[in-house]
Amino acid sequence: MKSGFITIVGKPNAGKSTLLNALVGEKVAIVSWRPQTTRNKITGIMHGDGYQAVFIDTPGIHESKNHLGDYMMKSVKSALQDVDAVIYVVNASRGVDEHDSDYIGKLVESGVKTLAVVNKTDTVTPETLFKVLESLNKIPGIDSVVPVSAKRGDNTDKLKEIIVAMLPEGEQYYPDDMVTDKSMRFQTAEIIREKALKLLDKEIPFGIGVNINKFEMREDGRCFDIDADIVCEKQSHKAIIIGKKGAMLKRIASEARQDIEDMADYKVFLTLWVRVKEGWRDSDFMLNELGYNKKDL
Q: What is d(CA 146, CA 53) in angstroms, rounded to the nearest whole number?
């Protein structure tokens, strides 16, 4: 049996969560065009004949501007401890800069196996891709450099082969049918946040959180009753999230309910509320309430 833990890191909007979902074969991390969509460490498990790779997706590496940002960067740091390998993801359209090179160099110097993945190859010309690959191959100590399009699945099979070859001998950590260690409650909050980010597009800044107030199976065992708050930072944002005659909130709830039902394989009755909490990203109490717990770091 080959098994190991692999952390996925990179700048915001490099496509780390999309890559994780492609490797696992199921959606375990939410995806958005917005950078810094991922806020927690998300675990995804890739199973195969004689191997198990446990991936840890992380928030995009960025300069922290509030307590939420501090939490996210501590989350990245803790995810790099005691792992068997690291995948550093580069956005092909943005190329490799000094920050990327320095970060990869430090990973290599730490002694951890380091794999560079150039994602979003479908968005650039072959000439541009060649330059990115050339830049990465000049960094000494990288185990492999692999170009992929996680969104389309291009070259992901080759990437899986390389990852499996990097895994050490080990034990099976999770059952064969388990693709993430995150609870349904956590995944439900993430799904709601994903739909809000998608449908609100550029209207609302990043200050959206989701708190699950109720997550219960009905006595007949056929349906989950879920009650959740969408937390925003301003009263004006609340009006936008609710929409005219509640239309936007209904759309968010409808799309989220469908994904939650697919995940849970049960009927879901979802009720959403919108709550204003100014400056919640700098409130340790609110961060804890919304699931950003320091004990998880």
A: 18
Quickly count: other Cβ atoms within 10 Å of residue 284's Cβ.
12
Tokens of 169: 């001998």
From edge to edge, which strands make up the β-sheet containing 267-276?
209-217, 223-232, 267-276
User: What are the start-end ranges of the H helices in 95-229?
Assistant: 98-109, 126-137, 156-166, 184-200
CB atoms within 10 A of CB 178: 12
The average pLDDT across 206-214 equals 85
Distance (Å) of CA 234 to CA 149, 189, 205, 274: 37, 20, 10, 11
Average pLDDT over residues 181-208: 83
pTM: 0.73
Q: Which two tokens stand for residue 297?
A: 């770091």
E strand residue ranges, the chain: 2-10, 42-48, 51-57, 85-91, 113-119, 144-147, 209-217, 223-232, 267-276
Q: How many of the other CB atoms lie within 10 Å of CB of 221? A: 7
Does pLDDT of 297 surpass 50?
no
Question: Who contacts 191 (Cβ-Cβ below 8 Å, separation ≥6)?
Answer: 30, 256, 259, 260, 263
Q: How many residues does the chain have?
A: 297
Q: Mean of the per-residue pLDDT values for the chain?
A: 85
CA neighbor of 39 nearest in space, from 19, 81, 67: 67
Instruction: Write the CA distances from 83 to 41, 62, 149, 293, integer angstroms.
Output: 14, 21, 25, 21
128-154: pLDDT as tens digits:
999 999 999 999 999 999 999 999 999
